[in-house]
Amino acid sequence: MNPTLSTSPPGTDSSVIGKYRWTICSLVFFATTINYLDRAVISLLKPYLETEFKWNAGDYANIEIAFKLAYAVGMVGVGRIIDKLGTKFGYAISTALWSLAAMGHALVSSTLGFGIARGFLGITEAGNFPAAIKTTAEWFPQRERALATGIFNSGSNVGAIVAPLTVPLIAETIGWQWAFIITGALGFVWLVLWYTIYETPANSKRLSKAEFDYINADIPVGLPAESVVVEEKPKTSWATLLGFRQTWAFVAGKFLTDPIWWFYLFWLPDFLGKQYHLTGTAIALPVAGVYILSSIGSVGGGYLPMGFIKRGMPAFQARKTSMLLIAFCVFPIVFAQYLGQLNMWLAVLVIGIAAAAHQAWSANIFTTVSDMFPKRAVGSVTGIGGFAGGMGGIALSALVQKRMFVYYESIGQLDKAYFIMFLICGGMYLLAWVIMFTLVPRMEPIKLDADDILPTAS
């Protein structure tokens, strides 16, 4: 499409175009659902695989580390690849590769093989969030991005909800290998929809000039119309991006908080199984309950800053305030085991609230990137943050979980290991908030060159 044209295709109007924007968001939601479904499968199959391959807590931690290391390595370059290839082709390639990697787990016959398979899955799954954030930045103006991000990011919860409701059942009826094959094959269904529906705004035949201008306005509340980001010139090197405090704020937030979500994803079924002696399909409802709550948090995290913005608060201040409130919502997880002694569902509730808070945090921390960086750098900065999150996950697994869980398991006091982990979960978001907003206390958008016309303050 030529954005200088002022006419819309026959039969279109702004409401139809708005629906198309949210259709794009739905596609990204679907991809994120599959992404997390594929990575969550192994946590539900852990009891079956422990029996077949004689794993202990250290073996499982090593396999988890293999995934995180590969994911972090993938993040080193995947953002720049997405920036170079564009969202349509880059997202498609990433999804096809991680779907093949997920299905490949069915061919594994050793513990080492699982480590290798998880590595391939990690490096290919790294493409989802840089592509998703870039797609959101392309299709949504600033004021809508946190909500759009919250909606697509809730796919990570839906994937984690679908997994416990289906994977144990598949494993018990037709074998654990088919759980990997069936869930992995869903990515190819998404590929058909993606290539049938998706185009970038500049190439879309569904957009009028008015809608194109609306998407690209990026005007924070209270700033004049001329204060917009003008897209999109040469790519920017990592060395340049790492010279900005804004990049390091995002890096710090991801490094400290991403590992907490991975702890829920990879260890929650084990916690519920060991703490409350749940097996097989009995674990499905409590695990699904945690992620149902987290889905609410993901979308709610997008709405929260919008409410502040509507009351006249500048966008960045709204994001900052929302993230502080969200960080406080995680803290009650330190009481999970105490409450669980009264009733298992009380433990599920506080863990679910913490998981919901993480997803609300995630919706906002991702949006800080598109708030502060020109669109051409969004994929790269997201990739840098994703790498930091992966390295944080590796550090937590290698330095805390692996040693601690093996030790306490060997002396029959695994509950103490989980208590320590819940303490870490409870405090990490407040620490991340302090570091992030010490580095960037107010809105300071990045001006990469003379062609980036950006607001000066907010």
Automatic annotation (TrEMBL):
Keywords: Membrane, Transmembrane, Transmembrane helix. The lineage of its organism: Bacteria, Pseudomonadati, Bacteroidota, Cytophagia, Cytophagales. It is a multi-pass membrane protein. Its main location: membrane. Residues 24-444 form the Major facilitator superfamily (MFS) profile domain. The chain crosses the membrane at residues 20-37, 89-108, 176-198, 248-268, 288-309, 321-339, 345-366, 378-399, 419-440. It is found in: Membrane. The keyword GTP-binding does not apply. PANTHER family: HEXURONATE TRANSPORTER, SOLUTE CARRIER FAMILY 17. This is MFS transporter. PROSITE patterns: MFS. It comes from Hymenobacter bucti.
